[in-house]
Prior knowledge:
seven-stranded mixed sheet, 17 helices, EC 2.6.1.1
Amino acid sequence: MALRTGISSRILRSSSTFALRSMSSWWRNVEPAAKDPILGVTEAFLADPSPDKVNVGVGAYRDDNGKPVVLECVREAERRIAGNLNMEYLPMGGSVKMVEETLKLAYGENSNLIKDKRIAAVQALSGTGACRLFADFQKRFCPDSQIYIPVPTWANHHNIWRDAQVPQRTFHYYHLESKGLDFASMMDDIKNAPNGSFFLLHACAHNPTGVDPSEEQWREISYQFKVKGHFAFFDMAYQGFASGNPERDAKSIRIFLEDGHLIGCAQSYAKNMGLYGQRVGCLSVVCEDEKQAVAVKSQLQQIARPMYSNPPVHGALIVSTILGDPDLKKLWLKEVKAMADRIIGMRTALRENLEKLGSPLSWEHITNQIGMFCYSGLTPEQVDHLTNHFHIYMTRNGRISLAGVTTGNVGYLANAIHEVSKSA
């Protein structure tokens, strides 16, 4: 009996050692992930003790004191919501009221598409979540398709379609020398893509370049899409925040709709309502008829179910309260215009300061571009010099967030840019 007990003990010890060794090796091959190029800038900025440091990498609005802003319309909506509602789950498709109001922003108050119930739409986790839902939808129902993405684009676009396992191609967009739109090359790529290709388009305030097609160019793009039978998926993260006018910022989408395209659209309230942390957005897909819209929406909900089950409620309530009340909506339109105007004002100030310093370079592109970001034309080496010698932080592609520029630091920023670029 003692012998048998001893053998059993050794077996238990041996199996325990093996189990511990196996468990300890489960994650042995996991390497640290590369730092996000945008979030890494903020981390470095926060670690810098210099009193002169400037962060023009952040993709969030700041006031002229460099402080985060909560809109008054948002504060009022929160006051109305507080204590009046329960915390029950939303449906998989999210807040019906929020989605209804959001579609009006993108497609128009009197849109026949809305009246005819031809739009399949669900609440999403801001613009990122809307893009990811669509990417998975594309993979599931057009498994042999690819997505054409502009060069450059917001870096996360590549991550989203990659993780949805949709093959990616690129098309020309930004012209390096002119610091504007490479329209001719873009049109060539649209013409040469296989018929029925998927294209990712920025509806307004292209990120990171701030370069948008003109209205006439959008009409030519739409026409060529129709000739080729391409599908346009619009990422609209900056409606209202680009020009200060939500109707003007939705012009690209309206042109495509006028031409009869069945488009997809990702919308977000991070920028234009300052609801960054609330993750409020919407994914919509225009369909042939109501029956098709019902089917598409049901499939979008099925994709969302194992991802996050249903979206959060608080941000959706804020949006629907603001857009559903005429007075609050009027206040929001006033506040979003004020944000856009400040950004536009900082563009002008930065260009003027550079020109006053006698820079031999043209800085017209600063005021020709639109939205939160300015694609400065600075090289990665010049950006490194700005960081190392002037404590100015931005992404290495030279993208400047105008939200981080203030009347207090614009002169310092201009002088630093002038110093690193005057020998270029």
